[in-house]
Amino acid sequence: MALLLTACQSGQSETDAATTPPVGHYEGSISLNGQPAVRAALDIRHPRVGHYEAELTAPGAGTLGFVADTISFRDNVLRIKRPARAGQVLTLTMEGDFLRGTLALDSSKAQALLVKRGSPTPSTYRVEELPQAKGSAWLFAPADTSTPGPALALLPDAETAPAAAIWADALAREGVIVLLLPAVDSVTGPAEKARLAQALKILHGTAGADSATIGTWAVGARAALLAHLLVDDASLRVNFLIVQNAPVAPTDRAAWRELRTRKLPVLGLYGGAAANQLAAAMRQALGGRRGNTVRAYRAAGPDLLVADGLSPRFGAGLPADVVEWLRSR
After folding, report:
1. Could you tell me which of 44, 42, 45, 5 has the C-alpha nearest to residue 27?
2. How do residues 45-55 score in pLDDT, each as one tens digit?
3. With a threshold of 0.90, does the pTM exceed it?
4. Cα(264)–Cα(259) distance, integer angstroms
5. At the topology level of CATH, where does 2-118 sit?
6. Reduced to 3 states, what is the DSSP secondary structure of residue 284?
7. Which CATH superfamily is 125-327 part of?
8. Cβ–Cβ under 8 Å, residues 51 and 39
9. What is the DSSP string of 116-178?
């Protein structure tokens, strides 16, 4: 994790203590524009020399939660950015045992007040930035890697990119390793093949990843293109495929049929006004083979989220539907 401080972290003087993040477990509330406040907790950890991490949780608004990639602490002001979601930034001023400030949520700004309640709780998962040729990828991996579990590369499109970090957080909290790749404006076979090949290499080398349950989650046009790549290139080996709002054009049907023939487990997720129609087309393309599941969440948007006050919530049944399907592989 990147850490921006104004003094050496290893010193033990009062000056050093005043310029390092205030380690501890904090509890309080976050509220926006007179709406009911939600309970929140912030854990600031110092697991080893030179390394700090922070985790925000809000049980009443689960999509607010995240593990920080960057902590900046200067002049008693703590600033924490959410990885892969530049519009969400927690800025707090330390006042004794209190942390008071704001949580920026894209164009909105909520008020936050937290008080220290003791030592930080154990980490849920860790996050790491991996610079790419265009943008950055982010690796979300559970802190406990003693039991191997599923891992996936998440390939959002431009429309669903803001929600991708929410999904990565939710899955990582359930023990799923997620490599979140940057959204792209357009996709081509050679470029997407290279991105996926590199992503799969990273996942196979990640501690805690079960090599028998490594797959990918692709959105929109990226999902349709990925179906063709998996059919045409034997070097791209995945154990499952999750597709979100994937179109089923006439030119794509043969690829989906071939994946069905190869018995590759596929989970289709559809949100938005056209969810039922699009899901029906995918069910027809995949057939009724066991292991393939297609679900429609018409009340949710294309990002599978529902607007709900301070922070969006997942569509009904989510993320449990995804987690249960992954665990059944």
Report:
1. 42
2. 998 888 899 99
3. yes
4. 6
5. Lipocalin (2.40.128)
6. helix
7. Alpha/Beta hydrolase fold, catalytic domain (3.40.50.1820)
8. no
9. EEESPPPPSEEEEEEE-SSSEEEEEEES--SS-EEEEEEE--TTTHHHHHHHHHHHHHTT-EE
